[in-house]
Amino acid sequence: MSLSSSLKFLLWAFFLGLFQLEAHAFFNPFQLAIPSGLLEDAQLNTIQLISKYGYPAENYTVQSDDGYLLGLFRIARPGALPVLLVHGLLDSSDTWVMMGPASSLGYMLYEQGYDVWMANVRGNTYSKRHVRYSAEDSDFWNFSFHEMGVFDLPAIIDFVMMQSGFGQLHYIGHSQGSTIFWILASERPKYMEKIVMMQALAPVAFLTHCRSPIVNLVASQDTAVPYFLSAAGYNEFLTSNSVIDKFKRYACRDIISSRVCQSLFITLFGFDGQQVNQTMLPIVVGHTPAGASIRQMHHYGQLRNSGKFQQFDYGLLNFLHYGSLSPPPYELEKVKAKVAIYYAKNDWLVPPEDVDMLFNRLPNVVEKYLVPNENFNHFDLVWGRDAKRILWYRMLRVMQSVVPYSFHNDIDSITTVFVNRF
Q1: Are 295 and 147 in contact (CB under 8 A)?
Q2: Average pLDDT over residues 240-254
Q3: pTM for this entry
Q4: Of these residues, 272, 347, 354, 380, which one is catalytic?
Q5: CA-closest candidate to residue 88, choices 111, 120, 59, 57
Q6: For the ranges 26-35, 149-158, 217-226, which has the lowest average pLDDT?
Q7: pLDDT computed for residue 275 by the predictor
Q8: The 3-state secondary structure of the chain, one letter per residue
């Protein structure tokens, strides 16, 4: 897709999303009022949100082997089995709690008896520190999601197990949170022994059928755009800082502008005005986007173009990095942990065709569930009005059906969930 055609499609998608929101608002007039009290939650960080609603909140900093200082939050239930929640691209730990106690997966898991941990990968709002570099240094941003799987996840998993006293944990990853899990398995396969089960929401590995205008725009200019931005001194994609966050909250705080902001999310991930609670939009905009590196976006663009799930392509420099002309593929066959997959038909970023490609490569999928709502999109899996009713309760049943090794001496008797292959 050329640059001009990509831009035309991007504009078309944006205005179509805006039209859909206007039509939805016309038929749902009572959803237009945005309570002023919600604006406070848009300004609170993860630990402040947890504390505000009366839950036990803990805040930690974890250092990766290559020196990144990663923010880690906990809804603490000492003595309970830990579950690690890992956010997606341009997101943060806020995503698991920002919709409030009745509509957030983090709170639901805590209420069901789990010790809930919420990670933040390098470069997002809560992980912009390094032992040597400042976030103003180009060297700080010299990473993709590869380094998150190789360095961030091992450090976080080891820390959670040390603090909780358990030898295993449940893992739930949304979007990029699943991508880096596959990389962890490929590059550091011993960590699969530490996972009770991995539950993947909108799992990303292959992007062959991706319909997101933003990702396709990046992919269409595979090398030119990232190198131009880097040469111009831009290292972060959709920068997140206090000034930008204040602007977002101001720009999206009334009805008309909030529909414009919501249309931007729709343009990225697919049309579904019905699942987005418009009264909560100021909170969403207050917490996202949470930042990412230009190289992350470049790497996703490479996956889109190549049709492969592989390491970063350095072009003529591949031989220096890998000893080969092409980047090595990630070995999905090493994902030995039990995996449950949940996906949506209207997900523009990861449509069902790409999920099927991943499913056919994973060796131990025990659940594959297509949400029975044709309008569900990428973020509806974590923010949707009906996510708890039609998805999260199912996830909980799957989690509870698998007994961790720590709780059972006879590994062969661990429950295996029926695989729904469709």
Answers
A1: no
A2: 48
A3: 0.84
A4: 347
A5: 120
A6: 26-35
A7: 66
A8: CCHHHHHHHHHHHHHHHHHHHHHHHHHCHHHCCCCCCHHHHHCCCHHHHHHHCCCCEEEEEEECCCCEEEEEEEECCCCCCEEEEECCCCCCHHHHCCCCCCCCHHHHHHHCCCEEEEECCCCCCCCCEECCCCCCCHHHHCCCHHHHHHHHHHHHHHHHHHHHCCCCEEEEEECHHHHHHHHHHHHCHHHHHHEEEEEEECCCCCCCCCCCHHHHHHHHCCCHHHHHHHHCCCCEECCCCHHHHHHHHHHCCCHHHHHHHHHHHHHHHCCCCCCCCHHHHHHHHHHCCCCEEHHHHHHHHHHHHHCCCECCCCHHHHHHHHCCCCCCECCHHHCCCCEEEEECCCCCCCCHHHHHHHHCCCCCEEEEEECCCCCCCCCHHHHCCCHHHHHHHHHHHHHHCCCCHHHCCCHHHCCCCCCCCC
**Which domains occur in the chain, in start order?**
46-246+288-413 (3.40.50.1820)
Catalytic residue flag (residue 134) = no
Q: Is 164 a catalytic residue?
A: no
Amino acid at 56: P
Q: In the chain, what percentage of residues exceed pLDDT 70?
A: 71
pLDDT in tens, 198-209: 999 999 999 999
Residue in 64, 103, 175, 212 annotated catalytic: 175
**pLDDT tens column, 276-286:** 666 667 777 77
**Rounded alpha-carbon distances, angstroms, from residue 34 to 31, 43, 253, 281, 362:** 8, 15, 8, 9, 44
d(CA 157, CA 140) in angstroms, rounded, equals 22
Annotated active-site residue in 174, 287, 299, 378: 378
Only one residue has tokens 């529909």, namely 259
Per-residue pLDDT at 239 exceeds 90: no
Catalytic residue at 378? yes
